Amino acid sequence: MSRSILKIEINNELDVVLAYKRAMQLSERLSMLQANQTKFATAVSEICRNVVEYVGNGSIRFSLVEQAGANYLEAQVTDRGRGIGNLDDLLANRNTYNRSGRGVGILNSKKLVDQFSIESAFEKGTKVTLRKKLPTQAPGLTKAMLEKWMAEFEMETDVSPYAEIKKQNMQLLEVLEQLRIRNLEAEQQLQEIRKLNAQLQLSNQEINQLLEDRDKKNLMLQEVNQYLDAFAHTVSHDLRAPLQNINGVTGALESMLEAGNASEANNILPLLRQQTQKMDRLITGILAYSLAGHHNIQKSVVDLHQLLNQIITSIRVPDSFGLHVQQGFPVLYTQEIYLYQVFSNIIGNAIKYHDKPEQAEITISWKAEQEWLSFSVEDNGPGIPEEMQQQIFNMYELGNSFTRPDSTGLGLSIVRKILEEKGGRIWVESEGRGSRFVFTWPASELVQEDS
User: Fold this and answer.
1) Which of 29, 45, 303, 397 could form a disulfide with 391 if both were Cys (CB 3.0 to 4.6 A apart)?
2) By the 8 A CB rule, do 83 and 122 touch?
């Protein structure tokens, strides 16, 4: 017997966070032990994130299930994607999937729940069922109790940074809709003006001015819309690295605790704290970027050598990569979040798109010119065709040879936008194998040694 509790549509990272939160709340209300609450919610999060990364959208339904005299909290995640090929290999934990990282989330989720099943068919989507057994003292779920829970969920006031960003985005979308309606109204007015234009020659100059104003507003509206879309994706783009590190550390911590190695577990707790602090800094910087505006982010003294070390640590460069950083990187008085995004995007791409990781070499260097500082990131990867060297800086333009499921198509467009804000520019040099990304930064922000 199954009784449905609630359903959530999964369309983006924010919905994944919501699904995790509801899983924790429901398992807590059903008297599940705290450790089991975390395991169940983590399994739900892993499967929902797979839906967002590999399909784009789906849904999750939570239910209370009775089977063979036992009660279970069930989460059923479904999508309408292309399905999973070689599903038997994945479930058997063969190396086919582990090399690319795909399928690891499914295997980890299977270990965290009491009952696990997955169904997948080509072009018909995938359905994953996760069940965690409830203790015998779990309360019976009545209609009144369920209605009370739903009301409490609706009345929640503890808003996370993710939810706040989503709320801001929805408000901006409402503003854009209002501007669109006003633009349609202006368009109708202009049509009437054109009909009278022959009789109103004396007003011709004024009408032309109105047309120019309308075109400017249209361009501004397009820019706002593009920025909103880019910013919404930037959150997951920039937070993914510390999230992956946190996931890895917590997995190791769980293994150590299960094995009873408390002393080793204590040794890695500082790593977990370091990643959460790094994530907090990123969230704070991103919110400042959203709320304070382009020109109001406070500057600070930024040691580029230390910043590059932080970025390289967060990206987790594979051991097979040779990474060389020129000595003597300067100290700047500038916006740290800008430089963090620029370097992390370019270095991350050099690692992500390298086709021969066992031979990979990446060199990061700089030089000072009269008015500009020039920074470069050079790799010996597959290179970028000449016809793509301009397009890759446009939003969602990746090129067929660079398309990957974990790429948003926004990274380099965000980099270009930041550099335009600073008055600099970015370009790529590539002939055959290897690529060299070069960008300029104002030399006026260089901190002199004697100061």
Assistant:
1) 397
2) yes
Q: Tens of pLDDT along 377-413?
A: 999 999 999 988 888 887 544 444 444 444 445 678 7
The class of domain 2-158 in CATH terms is alpha beta
Domain borders along the chain are: 2-158, 164-282, 298-445
Instruction: Give CA–CA dist 58/52, Å, rounded.
Output: 8
pLDDT tens for 108-161 read 899 999 999 999 988 889 999 999 999 988 777 788 888 888 888 877 755 465
CATH class of residue range 298-445: alpha beta
Contact 75, 61 (CB under 8 A): yes
Q: Report the C-alpha gap between 253 and 264 in whole angstroms.
A: 8
| Residue (of 307, 305, 286) closest to 297 by Cα position | 286
- The tokens 């849904």 sit on which residue? 59
* Residue 9 one-letter amino acid: E
Asked if 2-158 and 298-445 have one fold, the answer is: yes
pTM: 0.41
Please name every residue paired with 73 in a beta bridge, in sequence order, or none if there are none: 64, 132
